[in-house]
Amino acid sequence: IRLTDITAEREKEVLQEKLAHADRLAIVGTLAGGVIHEIRNPLSVITLNLPLLREAGGDEKEEIINDMEEATQRIQNIVKDLLEFVKRDRGVEDVDLKDVVETSLRILSHKLKNVVVECELENVSVSAHRGKLEQVVINIVDNAIWSLNQKYPEMNENKILRVRTYKEGDSAIIEIEDRGIGISEDVRKRIFDPFFTTKDGGTGLGMWVVYNIVKTHGGEILVESKEGEGAKFIITLPTELPLQEL
Ligand SMILES: Nc1ncnc2c1ncn2[C@@H]1O[C@H](COP(=O)(O)OP(=O)(O)O)[C@@H](O)[C@H]1O
Ligand SMILES: [Mg+2]
């Protein structure tokens, strides 16, 4: 019995790993369109400016070079962020939550263009898997954006996303709050179940992956919501990762 138990456990682990990987790839897939768009703009800045550079002199030349520099930097950042995200995990390291949130928001920047993002980010250091924490923030923010778009299909000043990081005793806290459609009690109960989705074409894996990552970091996740008014996710992480972890 013990043996089959272990096999079942291992099978479950393998399945979980596969699903987490699939979800990661799915996110990269949905990002691809945005990424192409994001890279095309700065790329055309460079392409259009190059011939001008040949003729220009003095101040004008300086300006053109600055624009091109900015554009290359932008492309560099996009590529760097994406690689960071897709790359295999580097294991546990000291991670600054402010950094995690900023990188995650940058990865989603093309989807956040008409969202009012309010950040209150303190530097809080935790020992964690950086890529996995980014995945947590990305998955939650991705749903928040969806919820805001459901409520306000157009640009709207109430399309608000609020993100906070702070320390409380020995805990590090990330709060992600949106003013979207909110979560009904029925959905809230099942939100962390694998394959539970209310979206056409949703995977239902995002929140499940979030839950598992938070748990393997020895943390807790809470969901607060008033239907129709938005949702708030509160993640509490220990600043030191418990010894037995991963
Ligand atoms: N911020 C949110 N506001 C409203 N509903 C949400 C929010 N986050 C998650 N949900 C609900 O939880 C469900 C599960 O989310 P998730 O696991 O990420 O899967 P998916 O995004 O593929 O549907 C979503 O389909 C949605 O109904
Ligand atoms: Mg999702």
Structure description:
The chain has 246 residues and is an alpha+beta fold. The protein has 6 helices and 7 strands, in the order ααβαββαββααββ. It has 2 domains: 2-85, Orthogonal Bundle (Helix Hairpins); 91-238, Heat Shock Protein 90 (2-Layer Sandwich), CATH 3.30.565.10. 54% of the residues lie in helices and 20% in strands. A hairpin with a 2-residue loop joins strand 4 and strand 5 (171-178). The protein has a 5-stranded mixed beta sheet with strand order 2-4-5-7-6, covered by helices on one side. A two-stranded antiparallel sheet has the order 1-3. The protein is globular. The structure holds adenosine-5'-diphosphate and magnesium ion. The site of magnesium ion (MG) has 4 residues, from helix 4.
How would you summarize this macromolecular structure in one to three sentences?
The protein has helices at residues 2-55, 58-86, 97-107, 130-151, 185-190, 206-216; strands at 92-96, 116-121, 125-129, 160-168, 171-178, 220-226, 230-238. The chain is of the alpha+beta class and 246 residues long. The strands form 2 sheets. The chain has a 5-stranded mixed sheet, with helices on one face. A two-stranded antiparallel ribbon has the order 1-3.
